[in-house]
Amino acid sequence: NYRIAKSIKTNNVALFIYSHRRMAITGDDVTLDEIIPISYDFSVFICRYKGADTQVRVTFFKEELELKLPFGSHTRLFLSEVNRAWSGKALCYDKSYYNIKLKSEVRDDLIRNSQPILSNKSQMLGMPQFGLRDNLIKCELLKNEDAYTYIENYSFFLGTYNVNGQNPKESLSPWLASTTTPPDFYLVAFQELDLSKEAFLFNDTPKEPEWMLAVYKGLHPDAKYAFVKLVRLVGIMLLFYVKVEHAAHISEVEVESVGTGVMGRLGNKGAVAIRFQFHNSDICVVNSHLAAHTEEFERRNQDFKDICRRMQFSQDDLTLPPLTIMKHNVVLWLGDLNYRISDLEVDHVKDLIAKKDFETLYNHDQLKRQMDEEVVFVGFTEGEIDFQPTYKYDTGSDQWDTSEKCRVPAWCDRILWKGKNIKQLHYQSHMTLKTSDHKPVSSLLEIGVRTPVVNEESYKRTFEEIVRDIDRLENDCIPSVTLSQREFQFQDVKFMQHQAKTVTVYNDGQVPCQFEFIPKLDEPSYCKPWLTANPAKGFLAQGASVDIDLEVFVNRTTAPELNSGQQQLEDILVLHLDRGKDYFIFVTGNYLPSCFGSSLSTLCLLKEPIQDMPLETIRELGSNPETDKPQEIPKEIWMMVDHLYRNAKKQEELFQQPGLRSEFEEIRDCLDTGSLDSLPGSNHSVSEALLLFLDALPEPVIPFSFYPQCLECCSDSSQCRQIISMLPQCHKNVFNYLTAFLQELLKFSAHNRLDVNILAPIFAGLLLRSPTKQDSTEKRKVKEFFQHFLVQTPSDRDIHYKSPE
Known about the structure:
single chain; 805 residues; alpha+beta; hydrolase; Rho_GTPase_activation_prot
């Protein structure tokens, strides 16, 4: 039976011992075997380390019990809780209770009271904390694990399929059961699972269980599989199955998702990921759907980088920093990456395919070119492609796209990997499936996984050498580091434009050390919200160094106070060494005010671009808005809307396809400086800039105070219009101006394919924002409220009536 030990915090503290015969899911799965009071006669000994496990002996009077605990953070937290509970009962610090026995050798430093009460600082410095020593031993053991561990190979089936919003109409066995022998793992990825507006807006779809059932029925029939995890973001879904005999060895399963659609948040594009530990290997699987269209390869590159930066998995030990994708032993990346064939006409491409000249065709593949230039997927491997492009076909056939657009065939659907001990056994498409305009792709990988089986002699020798080295180094040495720089100046910081500088921390002391940025007195975080340090904590071996990126990024949350001058780019970071001293890093900078994150009332009073106005003038306008006659609407909104009205009335996918970040920065600079009479960038970049502008308003177009009333009367058109008539004048003008513009766009729906069901949810959530997080009911009411204003009435004015003078 497995044993689970748990400590509780009460006046009478005890250790509760449970047993269970299978994976514990509910309280009915476990049985309480024993309760051991934590008192003066209680003690804990570490008997030995075996592989990744720690053998612990618990004694109470003459009773004795041995527990096997996983080595690492969970064990450290459990033992520190036990120590803390015991220290509350003990009257003094007694070394005899804290012994480590490794064979015949006795060590007394690994388990310590987490907060010892010692008056002599030299005593404290000579007494290593459990956390530091645990981390050091674990780090050194991992560094030398080749000396004592074994590698065992397991087969991973990776499959990706863009199903184009279709229901499952055929068996998936030709795809999922295409291997001769059943694989150990299945990671099955879908894109465009549901293309409906309801799925896009509410992340809810009935197609999830339909495709999940189709996958389960399509798995290899010669093995039994256990379902492990599902994660979905709108139409991007990833399913994880494993042979039942391996399920017990999977742990630390976490899921995350990142939207990279319009405003970098909407989930029509983006990625989902599952990370887990199998035996002693950390594995992360990412399913992504990147930006579409041949010319948008830079946007795809940007999506990839955003996913890598923003995808973070929390760890069970909340004191540890989140794990990023690249922090895993093995990374498996699959999905509709949407990279296309460049510089070849469609007929030439089809001719090369007919000749099976995939090598020539592959030389024009955008993903290959971007990887060769080390722009994206650095360190990843993709197997040789010897199958024809998987996009785009007429649905239900093997015929290339015959629509008016006549898309150039492309290898949109890809599978890549990163890590050691990985061998690809096959990489292929599955032409027999005809449900979608894509063909599914699969890859069978053989991955070498480190197992808990160890060479006992080699492990013992390695462990003892590590402990001896630590003992030798820890003779009352104080941790010490040097910093490459203490003061950092960030020049001309702009809204949503990332800046980073690097400080190198070098361990020049005689012992390893742990570092962490800690909060200053009475502050909730170690830094201001516009600043981050990456990594914010870590471990440094003797003589090692680490580069810490100090990153400044002003977003919609932090921009308002910086624009108004209430806050400045100034902060002091405190870098703390465990058992050592603190180091101070000074960060300053100058922020260039932006219309993004400024209030409507302030912008209506600005006759000049915001960066041409002294900060003191802006501050006065914000505090005393009656000083001058305001414009009816901010000129920045007029410039964006006027640009779209003149250039984008017939633009497809307007407000749905993201623009380029570089173009957004040009548009922002143009609005903030007045450097150009017309806006640069594509229609998609301007439309996204408009959405970002509305999203960044400190007070939305419909002020927060009106939000409850709007929800109450959402079904009554006349009451909704009555509320709008009560808005502050500049807010009312902007609302009427934007709704008139959207009504104009709907007149061209035959060309731009926009309708009320597309525009209402996108703009409703920006114009009528909740001061707190919305639930699905509120989202539907907000959408219903705004829909009333997309139907033109005789009282609605023409779009041009608000053009600023």
